[in-house]
Amino acid sequence: MSVAATIAAEGDKIVNELPASPYVYGATAIVVLLSLLGITYAFRSVGTRHR
Question: What's the whole-number mean pLDDT along residues 30-43?
Answer without folding.
Answer: 96
